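Lab notes, practical 5.
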Amino acid sequence: MRLRAIFLNFFLCSARVAAAQGAPETGGFVVRLGTDTVVVERFTRTADRVEGEYLARSPRTVLRRWTATLAPEGTVRGFEMTSQPVAEAGAAPLRVSYEFTGDRAGIHPFLNNSWALLELATRRFRAGAAARLAQPALPPGDEELMTLTLERRGDDSVTLTIFEGNPNAVRVDATGRILGVRGFGQLTVERVSSLDIAALAASFGPRPLGALSPRDTARAEIAGAQVVVDYSRPARRGRTVFGGIVLWDRVWRTGANTATTLITDADLVIGGATVPAGRYSLYTVPRPSDWTLIINRDVGQSGTEYNVERDLARVTMSVETLPQLVERFTITIEPRGTGGVLSFAWERTRASIAFSRK
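Output from the prediction step:
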């Protein structure tokens, strides 16, 4: 660890000297979700532009090359990007180009898990005096603005929130260069001195990760009622799930991405609570001894958007320890007698609750 710290310090000092002399600054980032590498990126920075090569593995392996031109104060003035699937040599590349001038001045381009682009924001933030900054940002190919929120945490760290409720702890140096990241869901980002993107593209090209949390449905007929749960299925990827990426005693979206949805064409009784026919979102509060199942009237929202005032009911689920590891979050609906059992399984935990048609 000491040799690693010495190397990193030497690398950063060399980068500062190079910048002072007008030489290009180079570097890269490796982004991992648990044990899986999801993005690798290298960049070259000069006084007025940053060029990057970004290789992402989900849902397919894609190589993106981008250029950000900088105004004297460090804001992004222009952004261009080409995107090409690695395993589809004949596919035409996707091209996008933006000018951040006039009404768009001050907007930051956003590419998910491009920490070279995010470093432009942390450098500007560290150069200013504000304790908190809400930075408007625009994903390439989109026209809907999002917000990056930066907050100071001492002399060597910044909290960067990209998606509401998902803060990232970012270690930075005095100039705002990103040294490492501990992100939401045990995402980690490592700064490296160089990367062979061509070799990595050849290696990762035939090994895409697919959707990180693919959508799936569980369905069954219970006493003539059609019951469906539509949800996303995150994978463990070597991470600690309960008490780790899923916190105890906190409302959990019970999956990923869009809120998990329960659909029933008949009135049900779940854990003693009456649930009229219709659509509902399902949230949970996991605990080691039992879970609370929350049936909420809102539907179609992101799973991170939870409004307690829209709760229809809260009921208790029983918990058991599974003999075998469940890698990917799984929801099942099992007919049992004149009713059924709704179950959630992940890692070595299974939470379940009985229900019936009213």
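Observations recorded by the TA: The chain is about 10% helix and 50% strand. Residues 215-357 form one domain.
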